[in-house]
Design goal:
This protein has 237 residues and is of the alpha+beta class. It has three helices and five strands; from the N terminus they run ααβαββββ. A hairpin with a 4-residue loop joins β2 and β3.
Length: 237
């Protein structure tokens, strides 16, 4: 008689173990391995590959900033072209003085100062006329004296005239001696024939006279009713 299996009351029963080379059968309805399911109550975070991509806020802000800068540059170029009067922005260039400005007509200024009248023979005072005539007489007598000096250098005598001769007399000894070699034309008094130049000579000396109108002239002398200006061969004018 076989010995019965000993099962002491106090010894625990060991569970049956499946061999390691065997896999449990798949449940009906497809594969549903519990190994692919996350454990209940697990704190495991999903991987980065399974999370949706975050929105890149920095790139969008840069794009908006570039648009704003471009708009500002375009406005600046338009304002510059308008300031140079190259384009018109609907009258905006008038704010800084650009554009075509209508010229303001300047009022014509009419001078109220009348020009000074030019002295003429009709308005010249008698004193001025007298001075001009007397100066002409002095110049004419100096011209005749110079011609007589040249005549004397050549002929060693002066043209003889015992009586006073008018220089305006073309037939006189004086006129024939001086013209045309020494004088082209004999000078004559400005108020001829009322007044005249007189000539007198003894061949070694001569005297030429003229009547002055200004009786206050210190170069003249009184001779009867006339005020005479005299030039001689030895006088110094």
């Amino acid at each position: 008689m076989d010995n019965p299996i000993e099962n002491p009351v106090n010894q625990p029963v060991q569970p049956l173990e499946m061999p390691s080379n065997l896999t449990p059968p798949e449940p009906m309805g497809g594969s549903g391995s519990p190994t692919n399911l996350p454990a209940v109550g697990s704190n495991r975070q999903p991987s980065s590959s399974s999370m949706p991509p975050k929105e890149q806020k920095g790139g969008r802000g840069s794009y908006i900033l570039m648009i704003i800068i471009g708009i500002i540059l375009i406005i600046g170029v338009l304002v510059f072209l308008s300031w140079k009067d190259w384009i018109s922005l609907g009258g905006l260039e008038k704010l800084w003085g650009g554009g075509k400005v209508t010229p303001i007509p300047m009022p014509k200024i009419t001078s109220e100062i009348s020009p000074s009248p030019i002295p003429s023979s009709a308005t010249t005072s008698p004193q001025v006329t007298t001075n001009i005539n007397d100066q002409t007489r002095k110049n004419d007598l100096a011209t005749i004296k110079n011609a007589l000096k040249k005549y004397y250098e050549t002929n060693s005598v002066y043209p003889v005239s015992q009586m006073v001769t008018k220089t305006s007399d073309a037939e006189s000894t004086l006129a024939k001696a001086l013209m045309p070699t020494y004088l082209e034309k004999m000078p004559n008094d400005p108020l001829a024939p009322t007044y005249y130049y007189g000539y007198k000579s003894d061949s070694t000396t001569f005297e030429i006279t003229a009547v002055l109108e200004d009786k206050a002239d210190p170069a003249g002398i009184t001779a009867g009713t006339y005020f005479i200006y005299k030039v001689t061969d030895i006088s110094k004018e």
